Amino acid sequence: MKNLGPLVPLAWTKSTSTDKAHLAESKKGKGGDVSSRDKSKSWFYTDVVKEHFFNPQNFIKGEVDESQFNAIGKVGSPACGDELRVWLRVDPETEKIQEFKWKTFGCGSAIASTSITSVMVTENGGMTLDEAREIKPQDIMERLGGLPERKFHCSVLCDKALRDAINDYYRRTDQFDKIIKESSRIIDPVSKVTDSDIEEAVLDGAHTLELVQQKTKVGLGNPGCLPAVEELIRFYKEKYFG
Amino acid sequence: MKREVYLDHAATTPLDPRVKEVMLEYLEDKFANPSSFHSQGKEVKDAMQDARFQIAGVLSCRPDEILFTSGGTESDNLAILGYARKNKSAGKHIITSKIEHHAVLEAVIYLEKKEGFEVTYLEPDRDGLVSAQQVEQALRKDTILVSIMYANNEIGTILPIAEIGNMIQKWRRDHNRPELVFHTDACQAAGYLDLNVEKLHVDMLTLNGSKIYGPKGVGLLYARRGLKLQPLQFGGAQERGLRPGTENTAGIIGLAKALELAQKSAKKEVERLTSLRDSLISGIQKRVSKTRLNGHATQRLANNVNISFMDIEGEALLLYLDAEGIAASTGSACTSASLDPSHVILALGLPYEVAHGSIRFSLGKITTQEDIDYVLQALPPLVEKLRSISPVSVDEKYFN
User: Which of A71, A126, B74, B385 has a CB 3.0–4.6 Å from the CB of A88, allowing a cystine?
Assistant: First the structure.
């Protein structure tokens, strides 16, 4: 009953190019690790994702003693389905990350991507804050051996929380010039849609202007901004989907 | 020891071997097209007519009031799109509820957005109930269709269909509005509740095979005699031209058998499952803190348990359960094409974080007390594990 034969999840054909081995591995599973509510689509998680999902690393159990850390980051809210908090202990001398602890409210990919990020930034003596800031969603994804396309937003959440914590460290150490504000830019003053809204829409699978408009209503009352919107869609498509 | 526990019967049920048995004949030897003009064709046609009579007996309707379709979604679509389009000259107002299945909701949304209909979406109460009074207050001179489900697929609440139907019948008489009709989606109710269309006072009713241990890909729409529908597809005279295409004969015969068996065992099965259901609910409430039972406590399908586990996300718990051999379903839609959580739980007036943490366990014929005990033993540590890594704390006013 476990083996339903050669199911190739569509999501993978686009989103992963790196790890063919795990793909073959995934095919052995039953109808997918995750499926949509209408059961029309299913996805597989890689073994690395499963390992970090079932045995997450570096999370904080129970109450957090914040005095043990010198940087805190937070992103998301339970309303949108994911909330992530991270606590860092940064060595003031080297500015390397000694500890990355976290808590998350989220699905399997959110838990796994946070866990693997905690390993990535602390292994081999720890990354410097500058190095850690450079971590991109794709890097996390690569270490996980890929995530279903629908789950991209989870790791995006994770690198955002990390950068939020890094800013917090610089704030606490009065290095204000090093704080990088991740401000979003308003693209359409009428609908108040920002570049990050468009980024989010593209990540959610809206790869055409029409689909992005369905999600964000950008430009509906202000067609003048549409060329800029199309530009951004191309940019984010390139960035995340290659 | 690890078991395989299937608690997703509301998604679909396994095929009853007795149903499979009667179907096989029509997949193998008796394969002829029932529209064909030869004795083999006639034999299949007769068997299909027998199935129609059999089902008519269960529904207390006439055989020619049954239209066979490809399943619940098509039946709902045919009822709503078919009736609204055919009768729009009589009015363009439709009433439904916010907790309907998407097969109903998306059809009425389509009519609203693309075909100029007006739709009233009734808000259920905290338990998922919609009252006859609420429907009555929403009725207008130009209302042609009311569609309210018999029992909700996510939270199991049983809606007062007979009362609503009765009220609509009376309103129709008093206001001389013969065009006003009442449709109900009874897919989740079959096998548990009375399907007598006379007692329910419904004009249209949707049923399918895949929730009653019958085959998938087959369903039916009961449509009262005289009621006019516009077909959704064209190309043949089957089902009086309202549903053209060669009939799924084996499926139809299987559906009739499944329905017969389901109604025969309904009383005993409801009793047995109600007790298992309540032992699962009370067991979870005893062993796991911070939960909420979604849906009505007693006006509830015998096989439905829907619980929100606060502070955690449903999909994560689902995957942990799956690793223990337990197949359940999330109310949350983190995995679906939209990130929005269950529209049903949100319609109960509960916040997003409560909706995100909901899990549905739906019991069935194969469920035993041992299965329930296994879940009760496996579940609490999984919830605790996820809670221990969660930064969220849901307000206690949402527990029950």
Answer: A71
